[in-house]
Amino acid sequence: MIACADAWRGDGEVLASPMGAVPSIGARLARLTFAPDLLLTDGEALIVGPDGTPEGWLPYRQHLSMVTGGRRHVMMGASQLDRFGNQNISCIGDWHRPDRQLLGARGAPVNTLNNPVSYWVPKHSRRVFVERVDMICGVGYDSAAAAGPSARRHHGLRRVVTDLAVLDFATPDHSMRLVSLHPGVTVERVRAATGFTLAVARDGVPATREPTAAELRLIREVIDPAGARNREVRV
């Protein structure tokens, strides 16, 4: 949750669109601590505070203008991710005759081409981190480059947060690299759970920032006293 919260660090006054319990807790924690300008939504028509109290009105037409202008930072999930950040949430196997039908592409293409995007993966494994996704839903760096300047205007993949590590794409070719390791996790464990070669700094990988006592209190007593976070990652 701390790594998810830190994904919004420095964003300023943008709309946070977290998808899932842990990203939502992270966004609310960011708003309550180091990102007071972050905008939260109820997912329908209201801008809300961390406790759900309405702060403003966001009609659908205005929401769309934010979506298409780079003023939103989305944190989505992924059934598959490849080294350049292409995401699949639609199907497993050949698109014409898939082995498994998933959610469908939904808003992933629009999200990735029009806003900064991060990903939350609650179980880091080779089933998720694959050499090549079966279908491109969220657009990765290589796909955006191939599509031309209009696709790159607001495209930007910020972070991938998993139960093992934090990753980003800050390499010369925008391939995924290992940024930090969660406590007790080794580089070898992350590599073994990844289906492609990760970029790793030669001077070592630091530990992911741990929560402060104040952040722990906010998570446990204010943001998520019912423990919804434990349904995604048990600790």
List the helices and strands and how they pair.
Blueprint: H1 2-6, E1 15-18, H2 21-32, E2 40-41, E3 46-48, E4 54-57, H3 60-67, E5 72-76, E6 80-81, E7 87-88, E8 91-92, E9 100-101, H4 108-114, E10 116-121, H5 141-147, H6 149-152, E11 156-162, E12 165-168, E13 177-181, H7 187-192, H8 213-223
Parallel strand pairs: 1-5, 5-10, 10-11
Antiparallel strand pairs: 2-3, 3-4, 6-7, 8-9, 11-12, 12-13
Concise summary:
The protein has 235 residues and is an alpha/beta fold. 26% of the residues lie in helices and 20% in strands. It is built from eight helices and 13 strands.
Overall structural class, as computed from helix and strand content, comes to alpha/beta
Biggest sheet, spatial arrangement of strands: 1-5-10-11-12-13
Question: How many E strands?
Answer: 13
The helix tally amounts to 8
H/E series: HEHEEEHEEEEEHEHHEEEHH
Write down the Rg. 17 Å
Uncertain residue segments: none
Q: Assign a percent range to the helix content.
A: 25-40%
